[in-house]
Amino acid sequence: MIPLDIEAVRGDFPILQKPLPKGLPLVYLDSGASAQKPQCVIDKEREVYENYYANAYRGVYRFGAIVDEELEGAREKVRQFIRAEHSDEIVFTSGCTMSLNLVASGWGKRNLKAGDEILINEMEHHANFVPWQQLAAQTGATCRFLPLTDDGRLEMARIGEVLSDKTKIVAVTGMSNMLGTLNPIDELAKKAHDAGAVIVVDGAQSVPHEHTDVVASGIDFLAFSGHKLYGPSGVGVLYGKRELLEQTAPILFGGHMIDRVYKDHSTWASSPAKFEAGTIQIAQAIALGAAIDYMGTLGMDKVQEHERNVLEYAYNRLQEIPGMRIYGPGVEHRGAITSFTIDGAHPEDLAQLLDRKGVFVRHGHHCTMPLHDLLGVSATVRASFGVYNSRDDVDALMDAIQFACQRLRLT
Ligand SMILES: Cc1ncc(COP(=O)(O)O)c(C=O)c1O
Q: Structural domain tally of the chain?
């Protein structure tokens, strides 16, 4: 396979061409929080506003028709990207968080009752944790936890202890936003189905970095955000198998989602309209289609290989730092994320000192408080990589960490 032309990729991202004050180059290592946007995505959003903007699914005049066509085109691109069977299985939402809440409230409240169980685990982002806690509180169901191994993987050997015919939902992340762990989704889906449960996959981190095939993997619901996939913020996706979306109640009510409104009751349209009440994120959803085209042009195989290469380099080099502790499994089980602490350095101080060198990382609990509790740390520093990062960025991170350690008098 011809490797990714990293210089050409970097050239696609205007923000990377602009030095920071004092001429410092930008070293952006926070794609796990939100990815930068290629020119084609920025251009697409602008194209909508400059050339044919109108509300969606309302006007028969020509702009309305163009917007509808573009939106349905974007929906079709999402369908192909995650290899879903039908485009009515693709719902535009405001983001991964809303998609997961839609499943918990729309499907969960209808299908769970006291005594039922939801299987989660401690590596989940709060977006794939709190909605299940709430669902349990509202229905009388219980959250069970699949234990984690010491190196931050799901302890699959113990799944029989927590998965049973009481389990109605298995909710799991495709890739941990803190540990980077890649979870065995196909195996989990099979086990969930054997137990009679549905599997809900939080794809916020996995979809931008790994091939996704909802049918081959047996995924029932998949949630992800546009902004981590090099697309605009404000738009996300919920994929649901057609028959499951039919069983899902809408959680937002109003225009567009209805079939017929009477004075005393209303009936609903079918999916996806049923879940897209009000004016949706028109330009953002259309530009998400451009982001997917962009990833398709790069090729997900090449993206995966390139990020793996950068990750391996980072993982090995970070271990040169005295007092370094990297959380999570070895590189063979992780995607392009490394979270770490350095003995004697507070993560916030570290992140601030790295910023002085133009290296942007995230610090804190990364919306994974139960995981930090389990690991016995209150905060970590996270370097997460995207298509535009290279080994040079890792070298810059290393130099910046050495600078920070000197400032903190650790060396
Ligand atoms: C694993 C994971 N799930 C869910 C989310 C929530 O995504 P959003 O804030 O775009 O809704 C994030 C965001 O960081 C994440 O990393």
A: 2
Q: Whose CA is nearest to atom 15 of ligand 1?
A: 204
- List the catalytic residue out of 40, 96, 367, 405: 367
Long-range contacts of 370-379 (CB under 8 A, 24+ apart): 370/122, 370/124, 370/129, 371/122, 371/123, 371/124, 371/176, 371/178, 371/179, 372/178, 373/122, 374/122, 374/148, 375/327, 377/327, 377/341, 379/341, 379/346, 379/347, 379/348
Cα of 261 vs centre of ligand 1, distance in Å, is 35
Contact 64, 54 (CB under 8 A): yes
pLDDT value of residue 14: 98
Q: Are residues 218 and 280 in the same domain?
A: yes
Which atom of ligand 1 sits closest to the CA of residue 98? 11
Asked about 367 being catalytic, the answer comes back as yes
Sign of CA dihedral 238, 365, 36, 53: positive
> Three-class SS of residue 18?
coil
Quote the ligand 1 centre to 211 CA distance (angstroms): 18
Nearest atom of ligand 1 to the alpha carbon of 233: 10
Distances (CA, A) of 139 to 117, 118, 125, 199, 213: 10, 11, 22, 18, 32
293 and 306 belong to one structural domain: no
Out of 206, 222, 225, give the residue to mutate to test ligand 1, the one with the largest number of ligand atoms within 8 Å of its CB.
225
Amino acid at position 258, single letter: I
342 lies in the same domain as 288: no
Which segments in the chain show pLDDT lower than 70? none
Does residue 193 contact residue 167 with C-beta atoms inside 8 Å?
no
The pLDDT tens digits for 5-40 are 999 999 999 999 999 998 999 999 999 999 999 999
Residue finishing a domain among 269, 297, 325? 297
- According to the model, what pLDDT value does residue 411 have? 82
Give the Å distance between the CA of 215 and the centre of ligand 1. 23
**DSSP at 333:** G
What residue ranges line ligand 1, CB within 6 angstroms?
Answer: 33, 95-97, 125, 127-128, 173, 177, 202, 204-205, 225
The range of the structural domain enclosing residue 267 comes to 42-297
The reply to whether 131 and 64 lie within a common domain is yes
191 phi and psi angles, rounded to 5 deg: -65, -40
